[in-house]
Design brief:
This protein is of the alpha+beta class. The chain has three domains: 116 residues, 2-Layer Sandwich (Alpha-Beta Plaits); 83 residues; 155 residues, 3-Layer(aba) Sandwich (Rossmann fold), CATH 3.40.50. Helices cover 34% and strands 27% of the residues. The chain contains twelve helices and 18 strands. Strands 7, 8, 9, 10, 11, 12 and 13 form a seven-stranded mixed sheet that branches. α5 packs parallel to α10. The two termini are 30 Å apart.
Length: 373
């Protein structure tokens, strides 16, 4: 539970204003982070117990951003009922699911007790361009392509809590770049075409039964068994869609199950992105920031609530006011770098950086402005 600290002596008398204020975090705020839906074969107590454990494992993976092995987590899964808020059975297409909601505060405390990192609700939008090579033919897949790949990407997104999107491949996309641009992993045109989707990170994923296999065979001492590898998959990632220099490349995944390779690749990509945004629970510290354009009491409350709701922030304190400039002290759950990475995803609180100024020193206070870009 996050609390605003003094000097908010006026806060109680203004509580009604909070309910009429509206502000938006224009990043991807992951919904249902602490809930999971699990397929069940029956509504028996035994099947329900198994489903509750599976649901809790899924939620811990979403909150933590990766599969977690820890003695305290294993103990929590055994005592899963302690973490359940409510559950209900749902039917969909002749299938029965158990929909479970877990207690956010208890799960976050579990992470703290286990010294595990928490990935907050505010997460980057990741754009995925998929190009398939079948023989001598290449095609770009869209979010509605007649393929199991878009569905698999969507399921992975739900499972790991990472917003993944594919292009719709309308006339705008088709005129913005070519298949050659994507296959060649040319950063500039791919980044430009991704801008309409407000992507924070961009992935190019290539699947081949032809040229990538030939390339792999040329680079290795290929024995006859090499011919049993039917497919090759690789990817490139721009972890910052605005910076082409951030592009990194994968090795190659070989096999005959494209969905298995796809999920392995997405897991590796998620781990890289996770390192930028995960919030360490073990090294609490403080950070002061200035918000330079707060002109009214309503804006002050909105900014304070916005900061307090950030996953990286434990508490917020207003420490000084000079005109419209308000200085806040933030007690952080994680590092300053993690907080600034999360704020980078927001369009409401924007950091001001003078391109002509000398680099900001260690003791200088970062300046932000409230309002949409």
């Amino acid at each position: 539970m996050k609390h605003l600290l003094k000097p908010y002596m006026f806060r109680n008398c203004l509580i009604l204003l909070i309910f009429i204020l509206s502000f938006r975090i224009n990043a991807i705020e992951v919904e249902n982070l602490y809930s999971a839906k699990v397929l069940v074969t029956s509504q028996s107590a035994g099947d329900r117990d198994k489903a509750l454990k599976k649901a809790l494992r899924g939620v811990i993976m979403k909150v933590g951003g990766k599969k977690i092995e820890h003695p305290l987590v294993s103990q929590a899964i055994k005592n899963h009922n302690k973490y359940v808020n409510q559950y209900q059975y749902l039917r969909n297409n002749n299938a029965t699911y158990l929909n479970v909601s877990f207690n956010e505060e208890k799960i976050n405390n579990l992470f703290k007790q286990s010294d595990l990192a928490i990935w907050g609700r505010l997460r980057p939008q990741v754009m995925i361009w998929v190009v398939e090579e079948n023989g001598f033919e290449r095609k770009l897949l869209s979010s509605t392509s007649n393929s199991l790949i878009p569905q698999s990407i969507d399921e992975f997104s739900q499972k790991r809590g990472l917003p993944l999107t594919m292009p719709i491949m309308d006339l705008t996309d088709l005129s913005a770049l070519t298949i050659t641009d994507v296959w060649g992993r040319f950063a500039y045109p791919v980044a430009q075409a991704s801008a309409r989707y407000l992507a924070e990170a961009v992935v190019v994923l290539r699947i081949s039964d032809n040229s990538l296999i030939a390339q792999q065979n040329e680079n290795s001492d290929c024995q006859p068994l090499c011919q049993t590898e039917l497919l090759v998959l690789d990817w490139s990632l721009m972890a910052d869609a605005q910076d082409e220099r951030s592009q990194v490349f994968s090795g190659q995944y070989q096999g005959d199950d494209v969905l298995l390779m796809l999920n392995e690749a997405l897991a590796d990509i998620t781990d890289i992105i996770y390192q930028q945004y995960a919030l360490s629970t073990t090294n609490s510290n403080e950070l002061q920031i200035d918000v330079a354009n707060i002109a009214s009491l309503e804006e002050l409350i909105a900014v304070s609530d916005f900061l307090a709701e950030l996953s990286a922030v434990e508490s917020v304190q207003l420490v000084s006011v000079q005109g419209t400039n308000h200085r806040f002290k933030l007690s952080l759950l994680g590092s300053q770098q993690s907080l600034l990475a999360s704020l980078k995803l927001s369009e409401e609180l924007n950091r001001y950086i003078d391109p002509l100024a000398v680099p900001i020193g260690k003791d200088q206070v970062a300046v932000f402005y409230w309002g949409e870009k």
